[in-house]
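Here's a chain:
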Amino acid sequence: MAHADDQPHRFRPHPRGAALATALTAATLAGAFALAVVPAGGQGGGIDGQRAKVRALEASLLQVNGEAEAAELAYGAADDTVRRLERRISDNAGQQKVAATNFALSQDRLAQRLRQIYAQNPPSMVEVLVSSGSLTSAVDSYDMVRRVADQDRDIMEGFAAARTRLAELRVQLVEDRQEAGKNRAEAGRRLAQLRALAGERQRILGAAQSALSGMEAAAAQRAAIADAQRRAAAAAAPGATPEQVTASSGPDPVPTSLVPASGSQGAAAPSGSGDSVNAHLARIAQCESGGNPGAVSPGGDYRGKYQFTRSTWAAVGGSGDPASASEAEQDMRARILYERAGPGQWPVCSAG
């Protein structure tokens, strides 16, 4: 990106003292601006330490999110188990009703047979022999009656055993359902804790990233201040060249990395009313982002309606992500940068 002091200067002789005063004034104003963007609480471990902190927080957040995903799967599995057992308990209840009905029917059937048998006096052996005609037939008749009675008894006992098994199964299913419910509740508590932890880690990470952006902006500003002071010292030194004297009175240094450098110097700032500046900024925004306040470049370096970098955004008083700020604030910050350093901060789009 082209800087305002990259524009060709015409040498105008002036007293060396006036040049030095101008340079020192610029450095003082830039120094005050740099102090304004240093994050509260000081540098701490410096930019490298803050970057390490951000990386550690990112890794921690990634781990917590992974644990939360695993906890969500565990909760889903526990919930499926509870639902499956509830369905089996419901099926068991239906089967118990059927078994009870069948048992009652078998009891009635057996009772009817017994009533029919004992409603009349049992025949004597002579009567059986006379009616059957032979001893073999009589024995067969008694065997048939005995087999029918045995079958009725087996059926009734089978229904009774089935009813008992279903009752025992229900007890086991209810116990399993209670245990599965406890597991689901524990998985739910774990999932809620991890989600809350992930939210807190995200908040801390956002604050750390904002602090890092401010520190980087302050570091860039301090470098610019040091350069301004170096130029001022060079201008004040005996034997300074006219070019050094002229260079020492350049504009206040500000970060100017809004777009990649393209060799273009950008258009000159329009003179006249504030409406002209606003119109020019509107054309710049349309060129940079199509006028979209939430626009983000493919690489993520340039953000918002005017495609600020985070460091430049912080340098003009912004905080957080430029693309997340309101459009009115983005317009205001762009106007501040425009008035401070001119439209050359957008070397490509300001030419339109």
Notes: Residues 135-236 form the longest helix (102 residues).
